[in-house]
Amino acid sequence: MDLALALVIVAALLAATVVLGLVWRRGQGRARTVEAGEIIDPRVLESGPFGATATLVQFSTEMCTRCPGVHRMLSAVADDRAGVQHIDVDLTHRPDLAKRFRVLQTPTTLLLDGSGLTVRRFGGPPTRADVEHELDRLTKENAHG
């Protein structure tokens, strides 16, 4: 194989890898609507009661470096809003929950409505603005529905 051709192939593979990485990263922390979400019982998560308006369920692991920052942010959001609860579930010793809720990365956050129905899912660390936007959206949907 010609050296120039090999360099072109390597450059093309590198460019494709960078583009795919940027596309993947752009989707991190974005809210996704959950189709046919399930109603979660707080006992399954071994947690206290859910919030009357909404619950933010964060799935973490001991090795997750971004999870503590997400925990602080979600706790602050929940503290600022009446009827919103934040629950952090450590999957390190509960792989059964990772499988049940299809958690492929940590942090993963589920937004539950007042009845415990999963309505949104964040894969990766969400921004505070995105979480607050989704809570506002849920509050509007509940007011109209």
Features:
145 residues, alpha+beta, 5-stranded mixed β-sheet, 5 strands, elongated
Brief synopsis:
This is Thiol-disulfide isomerase. The protein has 145 residues and is α+β, with helices and mostly antiparallel strands.
What is the CATH-assigned architecture? 3-Layer(aba) Sandwich
Low-pLDDT segments = none
Number of strands: 5
* Averaged pLDDT: 86
* Helix and strand run: HEEHEHEEH
- Percent helix: 40-55%
CATH topology: Glutaredoxin
Oligomer: single chain
Strand order of the largest sheet: 1-5-4-2-3
Q: Compute the number of helices.
A: 4
Largest sheet: 5 strands, mixed
Total number of domains: 1
What's the CATH C level?
Alpha Beta
What would the principal axes of the Cα set say about the shape? elongated
Query: What's the Cα radius of gyration?
Result: 19 Å
Protein name: Thiol-disulfide isomerase
Keywords: Isomerase
GO molecular function: isomerase activity
InterPro entries: Thioredoxin-like_sf, Thioredoxin_domain
